[in-house]
Amino acid sequence: xxxxxxxxxxxxxxxxxxxxxxxxxxxxxxxxxxxxxxxxxxxxxxxxxxxxxxxxxxxxxxxxxxxxxxxxxxxxxxxxxxxxxxxxxxxxxxxxxxxxxxxxxxxxxxxxxxxxxxxxxxxxxxxxxxxxxxxxxxxxxxxxxxxxxxxxxxxxxxxxxxxxxxxxxxxxxxxxxxxxxxxxxxxxxxxxxxxxxxxxxxxxxxxxxxxxxxxxxxxxxxxxxxxxxxxxxxxxxxx
Length: 239
Ligand code: MF3
Ligand code: CO
Description:
Layout (H helix, E strand, L loop, with lengths): L1 H17 L6 H14 L3 E2 L11 E5 L2 E3 L13 E10 L2 E10 L5 H18 L8 H14 L3 E2 L5 E3 L6 E5 L16 E4 L2 E3 L5 E3 L6 E3 L5 E3 L2 E6 L2 E4 L7
Antiparallel strand pairs: 1-4, 2-4, 3-12, 4-5, 6-10, 7-8, 7-9, 9-14, 10-13, 11-12, 14-15
Helix pairs in contact: 1-2, 3-4
The protein binds 2-amino-4-trifluoromethylsulfanyl-butyric acid and cobalt (II) ion.
């Protein structure tokens, strides 16, 4: 799984360099797809339940599963990019949320809290811990900062399938859930809203947005549980 995960990280790192006012998510999707083919890999999301694109692009109040659009991004926007690859029978999956141009201090605080909550969750992904220790670490980090955890979408096991058991909510009771064992690989993906956690799916059947129009951020890593602790397989090396 290190190979597809490395590819996901490389491509997200590359996309991050292109995110600036004026570019469209349609162009970002084209870059992601071209880079996937260059590596002789498959874009994991394209065709999955008829999803049309390689990349999920969710700006501003879009939570997840946004579709590429020709509308140019503008300064002050935020953009979540979620991307997956299938290579040699195994999947990798990761997401980042980026500021576009200059964003407000409050927006930066949301992005930082969400990314930190992912790291807090990952640090609990150790043998002997329970699954919802991960969930609880994410929830408490986020709620202490006044943000809210989306309930309707969750992380997941990953391996020979994009979505495997267990489901990984980003909220829960510590000390409960299945026991974590070396060899498990988890896609941990907090989706965090500025205001209420309520979300709805638009008529296109895919785009998930906040009900109150508040911003939403999303960070995801594919993480292996090992004897030596959590190993982030999709770590992004950025300039
Ligand atoms: N990373 C997301 C997830 O694991 C996106 C996959 S949905 C898709 O749920 F349909 F676009 F593939
Ligand atoms: Co995922």
